[in-house]
Design brief:
Elements lengths: L2 H14 L12 E11 L5 E11 L3 E5 L6 H8 L7 E6 L14 E4 L11 H11 L4 H14 L15 H13 L5 E5 L7 H17 L3 E5 L3 H7 L2 E6 L4 E7 L8 H4 L2 H20 L12
Parallel strand pairs: 3-7, 3-8, 5-6, 6-7
Antiparallel strand pairs: 1-2, 1-4, 8-9
Helix pairs in contact: 1-6, 3-4, 3-5, 4-5, 7-9
Bound molecules: adenosine-5'-triphosphate and magnesium ion (MG).
Magnesium ion binds next to α2.
Length: 293
């Protein structure tokens, strides 16, 4: 099966799935940010106290002017930073709950950060090697992760032989191979052309639906935020804070029907207005207005 037909099969399989059980607001919290704030040693107050609950199955997007603390918030949620005050709960407990059954998290950065000397399959296997998963068990998991991102045929290629979009797919496969329940993505498709980005967005919608992933995603693109998300948190800067929320209550999985609908255009307009307000509220102190891609 070629990559295009794999993608179609994935979208079809996802479309055949029944809708999830309880309403999103009744799902258990995966991450609770409880008055968490962050200042850096040089005195920068990156985040004022933030309160945010992310529930199972949500696709939550953070958007806002440059410097409003999106990456900082994502790193707090990944436990890469300690909050200066307040705290974060993961699966209603502390970070030690991560790694238990059904409580895994994975992080995808803007740069795919692949090992150039290693083949694609070796790159994807890295997290399993770090966990000392024996090769006979790791190999089928790597193959499955590569199939899921439509790169089953590229397992033996080197990163330099792949396009930018394919390299990002490898990076996503490397995250999926750990079978995460919570996926954190910081502008993963920001460096890609619009056509490739739309394709990866389509796949991500299908994947997160299929795998019942909880996803926290950062982007500067209004279109991408509206297409992917069940909820969008608009942030303002100086200091970084939650400014407004926009709920996208459109059925999942989504495709071109949604992307070309008047409802999509209306939601993009609503989000664009919220971003303009957030930029004004950021008082322009070094904050740039986000562009619509
Ligand atoms: N390690 C650090 N040390 C000091 N200041 C930092 C550090 N990391 C981030 N900052 C500052 O914290 C603020 C928030 O930065 P952050 O990278 O989270 O913003 P962002 O919303 O992700 O921006 P962008 O959209 O440009 O990626 C900025 O003022 C930034 O300069
Ligand atoms: Mg950032």
């Amino acid at each position: 099966m070629g990559p295009a037909s794999q993608r179609a099969a994935l979208v079809q399989a996802a479309a055949a799935k029944p809708p999830p059980g309880p309403e999103p607001h009744l799902q258990p919290p995966v991450v609770e940010v409880l008055s968490a704030e962050k200042s850096f040693a040089n005195g920068t107050r990156a985040l004022a106290p933030i309160d945010l609950t992310v529930r199972a199955g949500e696709f939550l997007t953070l958007i806002g002017p440059s410097g409003c603390g999106k990456s900082t918030l994502l790193k707090l949620i990944a436990n890469l930073y300690e909050p200066t005050d307040g705290r974060i709960n993961w699966w209603r407990g502390d970070f030690r709950k991560v790694g238990q059954d059904g409580r895994r998290l994975a992080f995808v950065f803007q740069d795919p950060t692949l090992m150039p000397w290693a083949r694609v399959a070796t790159n994807v296997r890295l997290p399993l090697d770090l966990e000392r998963v024996p090769k006979p068990q790791a190999t089928p998991r790597v193959a499955a992760a590569l199939e899921q991102v439509g790169l089953g045929h590229a397992a033996r290629s080197f990163p330099r032989q792949l396009s930018g979009g394919m390299r990002m797919r490898v990076s996503i496969a490397r995250a999926l191979v750990t079978e995460p329940n919570l996926l954190l993505m910081d502008e993963p498709f920001g460096a890609l052309d619009e056509f490739t980005r739309n394709k990866l967005d389509d796949d991500l919608v299908a994947l997160s639906w299929e795998r019942k992933l909880t996803t926290i995603f950062v982007t500067h693109s209004i279109y991408e935020a509206v297409f992917l998300s069940t909820r969008i948190v608009v942030m303002a800067a100086n200091p970084g804070r939650v400014f407004r929320e926009v709920v996208i209550d459109e059925p999942m999985p989504r495709g071109d029907d949604f992307r070309t609908s008047s409802r999509f255009a209306d939601l993009c307009r609503e989000l664009s207005a919220a971003l303009t307000d957030a930029s004004i509220a950021s008082q322009g102190k070094g904050a740039k207005t986000p562009c619509a891609r």
